[in-house]
Amino acid sequence: MNGLMRVLLVEDDDLIGCGVEAGLRQAGFTVDWTRDGHKAGLALDTTVYALVVLDLGLPRVSGMELLKRVRDSGKDVPVLVLTARGTVADRVGGLEAGADDYLGKPFDLTELIARCRALLRRAQGRSVEQIRYLDLTVNPAAQTVDVGTRRVPLTSREWAILLQLLTNQGIPQSRSRLEESLYGWQEEIESNAIEVHVSNLRKKLGAKLIKTVRNIGYVVEKA
User: Fold this and answer.
1) Contact 30, 183 (CB under 8 A)
2) 110 and 50 in one domain?
3) 186-197 pLDDT, tens per residue?
4) Is the pTM above the cut of 0.70?
5) What total number of domains does the chain contain?
6) Neighbouring residues of 89: CB distance < 8 A, sequence distance ≥ 6
């Protein structure tokens, strides 16, 4: 799955948006936050996202209209709808328009994060949180990596690259695609950052784990 940990947050309420953005970042996601449906549509046209967290009551283009456009275009990105419209009819309408899950306001941030992770697992065809690869055991929720019985600490950047590669086994990931999984709109991309992080991962997890694909990028071969 491309753009594994990159989330598009579409929410026009500054207080709610700030809280959700901070919570998602703390949970290990890269977050792009836009406050209206038109800009969100442009973002979806130009960036690969793992998940969209979408408010329905948006200016310019409503959340429901944006959701319909996304599905009509053939995009299968998981969408979690957030809204103050809590009636059964509203929930049914959102789900029938293509939402994958629905959370009414006010909501608990820990539940939002848990639902986001569940949607990602479903999109990846996993029913459990852990990812196993050879002697690695990776837990996205806890953000832990074990090599055999040894816990290996990773930085947030190393973590994002490892997840991107593990969930795209056998598919080379370009430098630009890896950068997309690391950096939000407001973050400056560090020079040679991908190479440095890959080098550190090899030192921590084994030199043979990540292969270099000449003139393309990096890959973790299928187990």
Assistant:
1) yes
2) yes
3) 666 677 888 999
4) no
5) 2
6) none
Tell me the β-bridge partners of 102. Answer: 81
CB-based contact 12:36 (threshold 8 Å): yes
- Residues 182, 188, 204, CA angle at the centre, nearest 5°? 40
Q: CA-to-CA distance for 173 and 165, rounded, in angstroms?
A: 7
Residues with Cβ within 8 Å of residue 215, at least 6 apart in sequence: none
Tokens linked to 150: 């040894």
Is 1 part of any domain? no
Q: What angle do CA 144, 148, 152 make, to 5 degrees?
A: 35
Pair (104, 23) in one structural domain? yes
What's the pLDDT tens digit per position in 13-28? 999 999 999 999 888 8
CA distance 183 to 185: 7
Residue ranges in 102-152 assigned as alpha helix (H):
109-123
CATH assignment of the domain containing 11: 3.40.50.2300
Asked if 15 and 109 sit in the same domain, the reply is yes
- At position 212, the amino acid (one-letter code) is T
